[in-house]
Amino acid sequence: MQAQEKNEAVRIYVSVAVDFDSTGQMIPKSLTWEDGHQYGIDRLIDVRPSVAALAGGQGDRYTVCIGNQEKYLFFEHNPVNGQRITGRWFVEKKKP
After folding, report:
1. In the chain, how many domains are there?
2. pLDDT, tens digit, for every residue of 70-79?
3. Which among 18, 23, 24, 22 is positioned nearest to 44, based on CA atoms?
4. How many CB atoms lie within 10 A of CB 89?
5. 1 in any annotated domain
6. Residues of the domain holding 26
C-alpha cells in the first residue's frame, strides 16, 4: 500500500463579488472560476475560522449554497496588517 499524499487537493484562487452588511461582515454573492465561468451564490449558510483540510492553509471558511449544492469558499487573510490587499478567496479542487 502506498502512502497517501498529505494534500489531496489544491487551492484555486477565485474572484468573488462581495457585499458588506452594516457590521462589516463580508457576504459573497458570486465567484468566477478559473475558466471565467461565473457562479451565483444563492445563500450564505455559515462562516467560521477553519483550516482547508484538503488543500492546506487556513482562514475563514464560508459554507455557501450554489444551485442545490453546499460548497466551501475560503478567505485567506493577508498576514501583513495595513496592506491594501486584505486577503484572497480560494476553493479546494481535488487533484486529478
Report:
1. 1
2. 999 999 988 7
3. 18
4. 22
5. no
6. 9-94
